[in-house]
Write a structure and sequence with these properties.
The complex is a heterodimer of chains A (about 280) and B (about 375).
Chain A (H helix, E strand, L loop, with lengths): L22 H15 L8 E5 L15 E4 L5 H11 L4 E7 H7 L1 H10 L4 E6 L2 E2 L5 E2 L23 H8 L3 E6 L3 H13 L4 E6 L15 H10 L1 E3 H4 L4 H4 L3 E8 L5 H18 L1
Parallel strand pairs in A: 1-2, 1-3, 3-4, 4-8, 7-8, 9-10
Antiparallel strand pairs in A: 5-6, 7-10
Helix pairs in contact in A: 1-6, 3-4, 4-5
Chain B lengths: L6 E6 H12 L1 E6 L6 H10 L6 E4 L3 H12 L4 E6 L1 H17 L3 E9 L5 E5 L4 H6 L9 E2 L4 H18 L2 E7 H5 L1 E6 L39 E3 L14 H16 L2 H4 L2 E4 L6 E6 L2 H14 L4 E6 L1 E3 L3 H8 L4 E6 L5 H9 L4 E6 L9 H14 L1
Parallel strand pairs in B: 2-3, 2-4, 4-5, 5-8, 7-8, 12-13, 12-15, 15-16
Antiparallel strand pairs in B: 1-9, 5-6, 7-14, 11-13
Helix pairs in contact in B: 1-2, 1-6, 3-4, 10-13, 11-12
């Protein structure tokens, strides 16, 4: 970490597409600073996969790296195919809550179950932003969106807890307000052998904030601050006390055997069978 | 026997397909179980790991094809196999593979639909799904085997076409051809043509949307390749609104296949220069055709046939050429009319085109039924 951090080192010379105040910029900044602090000065050892949505545009095509911008929800199985064939590469998925916890949820759960050694960064802005502010599986109950004009009657999913339960090596949630924690979580995720999941709760002033009375990113971050509870503290609170709170912190962190470990062992059996024949 | 050995064997069609994939150089298979395609998955799961390859069962068919696409971008030849319902779920990613020019082989062992239909029973109802299943303008490349031998040979050919044209290729099999067991000859591997995708030199930066097939880098090689299913330029940069970039990309992707349609077209013909009646057939149905044609000839009918191995792009030239001789073309299909319309479109009003359809219970069109139709057409003329 001798040379100072310059974000342009990692980016193509293209104008970024994000709205003013969008949390995707913070997530991009955190991730690239994490790489810098891990002494990766280029991204030759990385492949990025993403689906459809604003967060999917974080790596594609802006990162000076290989990136596969896949169909909506299908970034994780694309990443799975890459990781199986190239276990030596760092395979990183970026996606929004609609992409990862909505249409692609089953892939997320199965990737966590397999503990495949990829990292998934889910930017949770609690809304379908790119399509104009429709209700997401992460939208808090009662919130008015363009498809729930009388308020959402659809309880949100605790995605990070689900991923931890499904078997991931690492799972953590922070908001973009928690810049240092988010960056450290990304460093841990990238260096974890098994499946690593980070949920970055992120402001979307354009299609979410301004419709719920939070006029800009600063107000949204303030809202995050007021509604955030640390995981350690949350463990001692009741469900009623935690209603509509954003619980942040580490939900899982264990080194355990990965999908690749199990596969390599199985391939040895196949080699043995081939020799026998 | 890790490697596929040359020789004569008694194999099931699905097994022949799996062995064909191994011979073609397949190194990755991702699947989801479905009747009547599961034996491809089961056999390749046994054999591919003995041949330096990986087989994985995914959570659904979308994940299976997505994993195949990911694996293909690491430089591996990759395949999945399914049947109608799974083929429907894969359509989204077939479009993605077309748009991103990702070589991939998708086997659809047809069964009776729509929906769950009759899961164990044969049909030829996916002809149009194989052509138009995904959204938007695109060009499909689809092959139809009619024997265990061709389950092997056309699987190899599907990989060769996928690699040559950088596009998804569908092997449109059917339950009868897939589950049938018969003799097959595996030629010495040296005698077989195996195609591999064109690789870029180290200074190349344009990997997409060229009139001629662009070279394909792999991830992890330092090319910084940007792959996207959105409209993109030659470097892979998104242009989500520019009309010219979209038109250029989609037209080039279609043209790189369409301009080679004659080279791709593969078919078997019989007596097409001297026939009054002709049959246009494909897949399992063509097996009844051989016998019916034999009987018709014995009865003095001047009869010929075209048996399509390539379904899409539709080999219209050869079909048009029989219309110059025959007054009637009979199109037997285990559906309610799909290839029929392509034959009609190809020959226009020059020749009478007669459907012979049968669906349900996996019951084949019999040689007797086809013979009756042939005789009827002779009387009518």
């Amino acid at each position: 970490m001798t040379e100072p951090f310059t974000i342009r080192k990692y980016l193509r010379d293209l104008p970024l597409p994000f709205c003013k105040g969008c949390g995707c910029l913070t997530v991009m900044n955190c991730f690239l600073r994490a790489l810098h602090e891990l002494d990766y000065h280029d991204m030759r050892k990385f492949v990025f996969c993403s689906g459809i949505g604003c967060a999917a545009w974080i790596p594609s095509p802006y990162f000076k790296a290989d990136s596969i911008h896949a169909a909506h929800g299908r970034s994780i199985p694309v990443a799975t195919g890459i990781k199986l064939m190239r276990p030596d590469l760092n395979v990183i998925v970026f996606g929004g809550d609609g992409d990862i916890a909505g249409i692609g949820l089953s892939h997320l759960v199965h990737a966590a179950r397999r503990n495949i050694g990829i990292t998934v960064v889910m930017v949770n802005n609690m809304i379908y932003g790119m399509t104009g502010g429709q209700v997401a599986p992460t939208t808090p109950l009662g919130i008015k969106t363009t498809t729930t004009p009388y308020g959402s009657f659809d309880p949100p999913l605790d995605t990070t807890r689900l991923v931890a339960t499904a078997g991931a090596s690492y799972a953590a949630r922070w908001t973009t307000l928690h810049f240092e924690q988010l960056k450290d979580a990304m460093k841990t995720a990238v260096t974890t052998n098994g499946f690593a999941f980070i949920e970055a709760v992120s402001p979307c002033p354009t299609t979410f904030g301004r419709r719920i009375g939070l006029k800009d990113a600063a107000e949204m971050l303030r809202w995050f601050k007021q509604n955030t509870t640390l995981k350690e503290k949350a463990n001692e609170m009741t469900e009623t006390e935690l209603a509509n709170r954003i619980v942040v912190g580490k939900f899982a962190h264990t080194e355990k055997r990965t999908f690749t470990d199990h596969l390599q062992e199985t391939l040895k059996k196949a080699e043995k069978a081939a020799r026998k024949n | 026997m890790a490697k596929t050995q040359p020789g004569t064997f008694f194999w099931q069609g699905n097994q022949a397909c799996a062995e064909g994939a191994i011979v073609a150089g397949c190194r990755f298979f991702a699947g989801y179980p479905i009747t009547p395609a599961s034996e491809i998955f089961e056999h390749i799961a046994l054999r591919l790991p003995q041949n330096n390859g990986i087989v994985v069962q995914m959570e659904d068919e979308m994940a299976a094809l997505a994993a195949v696409i990911g694996a293909s971008w690491t430089g591996a030849k990759a395949m999945t196999a399914t049947s109608g319902p799974g083929f429907s779920l894969m359509q989204e990613l077939i479009g993605y593979a077309f748009m991103t020019e990702t070589p991939s082989v998708i086997v659809d062992v047809q069964r009776a639909g729509p929906s769950t239909g009759q899961a164990t029973k044969c049909s030829q109802g996916d002809v149009m799904q194989a052509r138009w299943g995904t959204h938007g303008d695109y060009m499909s490349l689809v092959l139809a085997p009619n024997s265990v031998q061709e389950m092997f040979e056309l699987t190899v050919q599907a990989f060769n076409l996928a690699e040559t044209y950088r596009t998804p290729v569908v092997l449109l099999a059917d339950e009868i051809v897939a589950h049938m067991r018969e003799g097959i000859t595996v030629p010495p591997l040296k005698q077989m043509t195996i195609a591999n995708r064109k690789r870029p030199n180290s200074t190349e930066t344009q990997f997409f949307g060229k009139k001629e097939v662009a070279p394909m880098p792999s991830v992890g090689e330092g090319f910084n390749v940007a792959v996207t299913g959105s409209t993109h330029d030659e470097q892979g940069h998104r242009f989500t609104a520019d009309p010219h970039v979209h038109k250029r990309l989609v037209e080039n992707l279609i043209e790189k296949i369409r301009s080679n349609a004659d080279r791709i077209a593969d078919y078997e013909t019989y007596n097409i220069d001297n026939c009054d009646v002709a049959v246009v057939s494909f897949g399992c149905t063509s097996r009844a055709m051989y016998e019916a044609v034999d009987h018709a000839e014995h009865r003095g009918i001047k009869i010929g046939f075209v048996r399509l191995k390539t379904i899409w792009p539709f080999p219209e030239k050869i079909v048009r050429s029989i219309a110059q001789e025959a007054h009637t073309i009979i199109v037997p299909e285990m559906n309610l009319g799909e290839i029929l319309y392509e034959v009609q479109r190809s020959v226009k009003d020059t020749t009478r085109v007669v459907p012979l359809n049968k669906i349900g219970g996996g019951e084949m069109i019999t040689p007797e039924e086809l013979l009756a139709e042939i005789e009827k057409s002779v009387k009518k003329s």
